[in-house]
Amino acid sequence: MMRSRPIIVGIVGDSAAGKTTMTRGLVNILGPDRVAHVCTDDYHRYDRAERAALPFTALHPDCNYIDIMELQLERLHYGQPILKPVYDHSTGCLVRPEYVVPREFIIVEGLLGFSTPILRQFYDIKVFLDPPESLRRDWKIQRDTTKRGYTAEQVSAEMEKREPESQAFIRPQREFADIVVRFSRPEAAAEQPALNANLVLRPTLPHPDLTYLVTESSKTERAIRLTLGRDAGRPVDFLEIDGHVADEHAIELEQAIQSHLPDEPLLDVGHHGEYQAGGGTQRSSTLALTQLLLTYHVLRFYRNVIDVPFAPAVAAMERLKIMRPLHGDHVSSREPVASIAEAH
Q1: Is the distance from CB of 27 to CB of 338 less than 8 angstroms?
Q2: What are the extents of the domains in the chain?
Q3: Within a 10 A sphere around the Cβ of 228, how many other Cβ atoms?
Q4: Which residues, other chains included, contact 75 with Cβ-Cβ below 8 Å and sequence gap of 6+?
Q5: Fold of 7-330
Q6: Residues 143, 342: contact at Cβ < 8 Å?
Q7: 54-69 pLDDT, tens per residue?
């Protein structure tokens, strides 16, 4: 069946802000066979060794092919495949590009995804991850020392070097987001390791009505709060979910969000809220609820966008099979899928 154009979700934030974890949860809910993933950090102009001699870091727009990013995001918006560059974070090298076929949903995550008006116009939903710097620092040290071969001292020095460009180019993108997500430690962090979630819900999207949920139960109201306020001078809703929210209240909020979702028989909510810590998989109720709220918006757009057909992935693969004899063994015979790469 010919489907409408893909729904594109943008997830932007600084290095180690949680973009990959958020993306992985959405992929798990929607289904890996329905989601294509693009990391905008793959569009670096220079590899790690070349950057060492430059006066700017990977956070600077001049260190990235922003124009190619814009062209390829436009192609994805209209359901056309792209040959995406690939940056190997484990080695710091630019490697063989990847053939990405649009699927029903496309998640585009990285450092500079909202940095130009051209990029911003192609997203249906824009999300900015905004953890406190102290928490992001801990996440980055943990990730880069365990997965990328750095020492803690090297990570700290690199973060200090990048700080001016974080301030100049990464954080200003927050103002363009429809939803701002901020995970933070509770004040009694030693007693309660679970993170709080604070969401800024801007009126650029029609959010589900959850007011009845946070006012009917006094117990729920203490752990889940929905209030009106202003962010950067603009009226917004603030949804606050405490890390100590009781399981039954978290489930209640999940059910409230799901009640607003269109009928989606393929929706899998069994593996959302998961993250890696201490060498194993943990689960966070606040992360799960945040991912489910984002899924609501993804499926709402999916239901409503019906007028721009595009060639589905199967048809694109048939074209690739026809081309394969002309290229010998240079084209892989497996179906290309966009795996979830580590965020920069």
Answers
A1: no
A2: 7-330
A3: 8
A4: 81, 82
A5: Rossmann fold (3.40.50)
A6: yes
A7: 999 999 999 999 999 9
